[in-house]
Amino acid sequence: MESTLISLLHGFSVALQPDNLWYAFIGCLVGTLVGVLPGIGPLSGISILLPVTFGLNATQAVIMLAGIYYGSQYGGSTTSILMRIPGEASSVMTCIDGNAMAKKGRAGAALCIAAVGSWIAGTFGIIMLTLIAPPLATIALRFGPPEYTALLVLGLIFLAYMSSTSLVRTLLMACIGLMLGMIGIDNMTGHFRYSFGLAELGDGIGIVPVAVGLFGLGEILATPSHKVVGEVIAPKLRELLPSRQEWREASMPIARGSVLGFIIGIIPGSAHIISSFLSYALEKRISKRPEEFGKGAVAGVAGPEAANNSASTGAFVPMLALGIPTGPITAVLIGALMIHGVPAGPQLVSDHPDVFWGFVASMYVGNLMLLALNLPLVGLFVSLLRIPYAYLYPLIIMFCVIGVYEVSHSIVDVWIMLIMGVFGYALRKFNFDPAPLVLGLVIAPIFEQSLRQSLIMSNGNYLIFFSRPISLGLVIVSIGLLALSALAFVLNRKDWRTKLAEAEVGKTP
Amino acid sequence: MDRRNFVAGTAAAAAALAIRPSVAQSVYPDHAITIINPFPPGGATDVVTRPLAAVLEPIVKQPVVIETKAGAAGAVGTQVAANAKPDGYTLLSHITSISAHSEVDKLFGRPLKFTRADFIPLARFVADPCVLLVNDKQPYKTLKELVDDAKKRPDEIIYSSSGLYGALHIPTALFAKAAGGLKLRHLPTNGGGPALTAFLGNNAQVLVSSVSASLAQIKAGKARPLALFGAQRSKALPDVPTMKELGYDVEYYLWVGMFAPKGTPANVVTYLRDALKKAANTDQFKAAIANLGQDLAYLDQPDFAKFWDADAKRIEAAVNEIGRVQG
């Protein structure tokens, strides 16, 4: 503990050198821009700027590149809240209640809560990273295919709480998502499935084109068909800040989101994507007023935003402590370190303390910078909404197209987005919520792969899920949740979803 | 925008387009060169190609842009490069597995999207030998112990790989064949990182990896190297015997090379070979490669073409040896 503090102080002495401060600032600034602009994601932002770091030393390089990564998590919520365009999979959930808040004229409040929530979650993540990175990392390694499978089963059970519509509609959407997730090469046998001869479909349907199409484009296409009330979302300056009531509603979700996100973040693989989905479902599950979700619930913004930020910090744990990449972005960072002659591995801390502790300390500083950078920008961003729709919407469509193309330079992706836009419009008209579809699409490929990997490991024996402690624990939680729901069903208690379904039936003549 | 502006603008744009070809005929290159990287950022191609592009720019005096077109284990980007206009402005950076794509398609009876003949090899930059590893929970100290145990327990020892027919699956298959049809169980993942993770978490016991990607884990004692797939011992791991020393006739390298689409004019190819040679031999590039834990293994076109032919034969044989997987 004491030695950790001394090392951290040493880290601050590295991070607070003017040069390093400057590179952290540049990284955070670029990250914010990358996050706000739907055109470029953090992955392309980092790869494009990688050659720029060749003239710098390893510490400066990793400080700057990591700044882009966590900076983009701050910016990512902006377009979700203001325009309902998720810049990446992790901001899908922010779209729903964030944009609903914006429509109620609380865009400023939503942005503030997202920024402060991100800061709290980010700082929490770094504190955890500082204190318990090495032991946590070993737990991360024990997270093999069977544990993954069990986690995703839990994710699927949480699906029921994802949506603001009835259970039948939610499950229908989820099924479509799961089926879309089947498209692509079968990793276990090498067969192409439903690819229609398009090599681009080999890796399956991307999440970003689907999410941008369903949420962003679908929203825009639906706008002309109802009367637009312009003045609702042009708030006065003093309305930019969240009210005391909103802070109160946000505080616990931020705390829960931070912890949940960090735990999920350290798991290697693509689990961090589902952190915001799980946080949303969790908040809805324990909320006293679950029917408010989807209509601008503060907890629906605060929880997921906190979760995706602390997940992005959690992702550094296996990277720094073990040298294994948790996802494409940490893979690029490891590559960047290697190019600078710092091999990322279990001995990074002992061999290169300057790089490790300087990097950790710079994240404390960087998160503060981001808060200072983002809060004043809230007013500016909100005033974007004053642009008349006639000019704003064509611009948004343009950004959607560029953004989706930019992810993997694929025209096929742009077509997928356009088709999904039309589909999203139809869903809105018929009152379906697209969020479970996106979650289904996220889960399907990972779930299939880890299930089949588990069965390879056990030679086809399903008991593997019950013989390993972590996966057994997750399976028990899943069974418990199902039992609770079944109990409510047996006791014939009506919960909010049944009421909702009845209301929907009542609505249609 | 009124109509007059529109007409003027269109005319200007048309004029600008019309000027291009005449300049292009005079000197190559007159605009940015694009290098397609068919793998996700952070992979072997990416970490070699980025420093290369940085040193290539001052040599060709044009921007050198890396365009990442990942997908389908590299097939997407490779197909784009194969169909690109062969004018020297679109190049492809690829690794060992470029030889596997069309062989896998043949195996499944799929129409071939491209073959090796669609590309002109320009230069090879690195050739990192692979190394066979067992994780620190395993008792094996020598390759012989592993082979003996694997023979006693067929299909029980698990190895992870970057994916079916991928760059890390092929060497394991080559070794299993050379060891007299050794039966190991294959756990495919979706990349070099996930394969390493599965291996370190003891969800797989054996992994074949490139030396540079696993050196840090070897030094930390998390992975034990048993044999090297190179022709000579590696400088980084001088104590690890080669497969050939141990009596297994296998050789496998994770190399990175540059290719141009078929039909690129001869003078452009000559120019590019020359430029790549200069770039590869700059101190800056050598330093970047050394930092990756590798040595420059530059080969110019004639040698590279010869090497590639021999390498492709090994890989095609391995793909056919693996065959179609039942599942």
Report on this model:
- The complex is a heterodimer of chains A (509) and B (327).
- In chain A, strand 1 and strand 2 form a beta hairpin.
- In chain A, helix 3 packs antiparallel against helix 4 and helix 5 runs antiparallel to helix 12.
- Chain A is 72% helix and 1% strand.
- Chain A contains 22 helices and two strands.
- By secondary structure, chain A is mainly α.
- Chain A has one domain.
- With 327 residues, chain B is an alpha/beta fold.
- Chain B folds into two domains: 164 residues, 3-Layer(aba) Sandwich (D-Maltodextrin-Binding Protein, domain 2); 100 residues, Periplasmic binding protein-like II (D-Maltodextrin-Binding Protein, domain 2), CATH 3.40.190.
- Chain B contains eleven helices and ten strands.
- In chain B, strands 1, 2, 3, 4, 5, 6, 7, 8, 9 and 10 form a ten-stranded mixed beta sheet that branches.
- In chain B, helix 2 links the parallel strand 1 and strand 2.
- About 6% of the residues of chain B have low confidence.
- At the A-B interface, helix 3, helix 14 and helix 19 of A face helix 2, strand 2, helix 3, strand 6 and helix 7 of B.
Please give the largest β-sheet of chain A.
2 strands, antiparallel
Percent range for β-strand residues of chain A: under 5%
Low-confidence stretches of chain B: 6-24
Structural class of chain A: mainly alpha
